[in-house]
Amino acid sequence: MPTPPPAAPPRSEGSLPAASPGAPRGALGLGPADAEAVLEAFFHHAPSLMGIVEITEDDDILHVGDNAATCAFFGVPAGATAGRLARELGATADTRAAWLRRYRESERTGGPVRFEYRYESPSGPAWLAVGVAPAGRAASGRPRFCYVAENITRQKEAEAALRQSEQRERERAEELETLMRELRSLTDNLPDVVARFDAGLRYVFVSAALERARGLAPSAALGHTDRELGVAPEMCARREAALRSVFASGQPLSFDTHEEHDGAVRHATSRLVPERGASGAVEHVLEIWRDETERWRREEDRERLLSALARSNEELERFAFVAGHDLKAPLRAIRNLAQWVAEDANATLPAESRGHLETIQARAARLDAMIDGLLQYARASRRAETLELVAPCDLLRDCVDLLAPRRGVTVTV
Question: Which residue in 94, 237, 268, 316 has the fewest CB atoms around it within 10 Å?
Answer without folding.
Answer: 94
